[in-house]
Amino acid sequence: MAEASPDCLFCSRLAARLPRGLMGRAFYAFPVVISTQDELRRLGESGAPEGTVVVADHQTGGRGRQRRTWVDQPGSNLLFSLLLRPEMPAAQVPQLTLLAAVATREALIASTRLEIVIRWPNDLLVGRRKLAGILAEASALDDRVSQVILGIGINVNQTTFPELGAEATSLALELGHPLDREMLLEGLLAALDGWYTRCLREGFLGVREAWRQAAVSLGQPVATAGVAGVAEDLDVDGALLVRTGEGRVVRVVAGV
Ligand code: BTN
């Protein structure tokens, strides 16, 4: 496991500012890791409690969905993973990625007032440019979830994206000034806490409604998980309903 260092941006100050809820009740900050997902998976397998957070100033092997890489400029962005232990069947885990998109969007809008939208299943965009991505990695035993590692990467103060060019943006690029990452993380953890607690208590429908309000994908052509067509709606369980060229409606579940 990587060693925490007092020089790390987040190490000493943030712990004192964390919200009092579930998310961040155990908190690990590192200057550099391969991936916060791996650090947190190891902690989870050793019994770390739900709500444990791992944050890093830089990842050397950050990963995204569909085996893509997630590259960051050191000391610029928010890169963190969150440990969940929901009492739910493995089939419902994709709902958590939609929940994370809704909560992350809400927190970022509250801090920046930017117009941020969701692209199926959980990319956050400003205009057509990607601002943030979410990756859920789950372990299950006999169809019950033992842990979900929810990884969130947000482009905060990075202003050039050599690999991605115009496909990517950051909060600093959109606002014209850098932002305080600790303040943002505080708001993000509070929003994730609120949406997660509510979803466990009341079910998925509130997340579904918020996702539908924020999604740019509905009514638009999509090509996802081998299905091409027009995204018509989000089903009550979080599957995307896609109408194909032949007029059939196919359900697509967000991969985790
Ligand atoms: C995507 O859009 O494909 C998902 C990107 C997820 C990136 C975050 S950064 C923190 C966590 N650690 C990783 O290696 N990936 C996630």
What share of the residues lie within helices?
25-40%
By DSSP, the count of extended strands is: 11
- Roughly what fraction of the amino acids lie in strands? 25-35%
Distance between the termini: 24 Å
Which ligands accompany this protein?
Answer: biotin
What spatial form do the alpha-carbon principal axes imply?
A: globular
Report the order of strands and helices. HEHEEHEEEEHHHEEEE
User: What summary fits the major beta sheet?
Assistant: 7 strands, mixed
Helix count from the secondary structure assignment: 6
Note poorly predicted spans. Answer: 1-7
**Average residue-wise pLDDT:** 91
Q: What integer value in Å does the Rg equal? A: 18 Å
Query: Structural class, from secondary structure content?
Result: alpha+beta
Describe what this molecule looks like in 3D.
Helices cover 29% and strands 26% of the residues. It is built from six helices and eleven strands. It has helices at 11-17, 36-45, 93-112, 171-175, 181-202, 205-214; strands at 27-30, 53-56, 78-84, 117-119, 123-126, 129-141, 144-154, 221-224, 227-234, 240-243, 249-252. Strands 1-2-3-7-6-5-4 form a seven-stranded mixed sheet, with helices on both faces. A four-stranded antiparallel sheet has the order 8-9-10-11. 41% of the residues are buried. Biotin binds next to helix 2, strand 3, strand 6 and strand 7.
